[in-house]
Amino acid sequence: MAPVDPHSYTDGAHPVVSRAALAFYLDFAASTIHASAVLTLSAPHSGDLLLDTRALAVHSASTD
Asked: Which end of the chain has less Cβ packing within 10 Å, N or C?
C-alpha cells in the first residue's frame, strides 16, 4: 500500500509511537551527534515497522 503522505513512509495500518525516550551525546570536536531512542508503540505489532530515517545513519535496532 502506498503511503497517504507523499513526504513520509508512514503507514496508517501500523501502530503509532506513543512514547519516545531519547538520549543524546554531542561530540563538538567531531561535529557529530550520537543518539539512541526507545520507542513504545500504541499497540502490539508483528512484522515490518517502517521508521522514517531520511538523512540518518542507523547502526543497530533491537526489540524487547
From this structure: C
